[in-house]
Amino acid sequence: MIQPHAIFNINGMITSEDIGISVLDRGYLYGDSLYEVVRSYRGVFVHLEEHLDRLENSARLCSMKLGQSRAVYREQILRTFEAFQKQPDMSRTDVYCRIIVTRGVGRIGFAHSKIQTPSQFTLILMPIEEPSPDQWKQGLHLWIADRLRNDSRALDPAMKSGNYLNSVLAYLETVETQRSLPVDDAVLCNSEGHVTEGTTFNIFYVRRGIVCTPPLEIGILDGITRREVIELARNEKMEVREVRFPRERLLEADEVFVTSSIKEVMAVTRINGIDLKSRQEGPVTRALRLLYRDSVDQRVAKLETGL
Ligand SMILES: Cc1ncc(COP(=O)(O)O)c(C=O)c1O
Q1: Ligand 1 site, residue 260, Cβ cutoff 6 A
Q2: Which end of the chain is less enclosed by CB atoms within 10 A, N or C?
Q3: Which residue owns the Cα nearest ligand 1 atom 7?
């Protein structure tokens, strides 16, 4: 019987049972873990299968043997969500669900032979915080970090590992640096000066109606939202190009936006303290944000009716 650990974090308070993670867990010791973040919409995890696909792919990329089957992960996520919604005042609350899998617990040392357990599995669920209409409109203020994105030959960003120090440091070194204007998050370039992605999101710009984003081969996460937004834009007959570009391209763009499961499609209105042409959410960003929400709504309806 597998016991996933659910942490219900409500108003910042951990209210779960003792989750008892070992200090000898390789996730804790080495960042030797994988994770996914999926959110629910009206009680349904619309992209769960895509996230489980990516978890399996990440496991392949780092030769991690997943201790549970995909069906078990799916079932435990759904059961935990059900338990979450049974809490007082939570019956209709949508969640941020983080799925963490570590290579296991064992003796110190890197060899697989040191590991004494199957991979360990933890879930963290907490209420999702929806941005306000003003936040959608006002967009994000980003800073291009001096720190470079991991090279895919070193720690492939396509693998969603729990080793996020690259993103953590880029965030701390930009957002927590004293500046006259506040910064929300960081974008990283590679050693060739090309823009890659943000700390936890993919990035796009729009110029003369053409939607551009870095290609997967540059070394980024194959974002599930990125993928869907590209498809939605192409269905609307927008031209989408996956191209390498330097940071200046973002500053000259008509619009910039980011994508992620949590941020969905969110405008960027200032970069490195410079106001972009579009000081509020631009028309293409808005159109794609609404298309994305429509597509989510359709998926919810489909999954609810089981069709
Ligand atoms: C580095 C990075 N890039 C992009 C994304 C966006 O991916 P998705 O759209 O699948 O949430 C994430 C999400 O966590 C991320 O961590």
Answers
A1: yes
A2: N
A3: 223
